[in-house]
Model the fold of this input.
Amino acid sequence: MRKWIAFLCAVLLLIGCSAAEFASSAAAPSQAASQSVSIPDWMQEDYQPTGKYDFQVPEGTIVEYIMAVPDFLNAEQQARYVAAMEAYRAFTVEPGFSSDDTDVWETGLPYQYVREKAFEDSADLADYLRSLFDFELFKKLHQAYAPVESQSIAPGSAPLVGQSLYADFEGKLYVLQVGQGNGKQCPYPASFELISRTEQEIVFETCYESGAACTLRMTLTDRGWLFSAFSTPYDGQLSAFW
Done:
């Protein structure tokens, strides 16, 4: 009888140890996964810009822009429109902000150092964009797709396809060298039409000489006026040109 009791105790002890080991091994992958995921602050929906970019225009200041601006917007809203148009086109229409001619080749793709506006790195660029666009528009720009057409590049080798055209190398911001492969011109809007205006929202159309029109929306938030709808007739025309 004592032998049977001792045998049962040994079996229960082994079962308990095995269960504990299984639980431990089952929990390990999830713990490892949670530790490996790191999302930057500027990719969080509740991110608050640093205030470095506020687009305030001193009263009485006369500003001349390289593009037409809606006359129904005040000075700050006009400054935000111009900045947003340049930034949006830098992701969806043109090769990006001005850069130098020094190429850095990563995974078979050419990048150039971004000099315009003196963005320090990806976080600084994101801070700029989050000061102009709401979270959904920011995500759209951050995940801009850059088609790779070069036959010398293996499929799937592009490091930023489905991510961003911009990347950090050695602590500096670089832009992937892409441009309009179809040769079409991408002019700025020629005129504007106000659709609606409230204290919290402004909706207007940008009208192009081609006859195309796009609807833009500015929304007043705790971070100032942000664009919650933005587009151009040339969206998605980026392609590799090297």
Q: What stands out?
A: The beta strands are 99-106, 109-114, 166-169, 172-176, 178-180, 191-197, 201-207, 213-221, 224-229, 238-240. The chain has one domain: 53-240. Residues 53-240 form a domain with the Nuclear Transport Factor 2; Chain: A, fold (CATH 3.10.450). The radius of gyration is 26 Å.
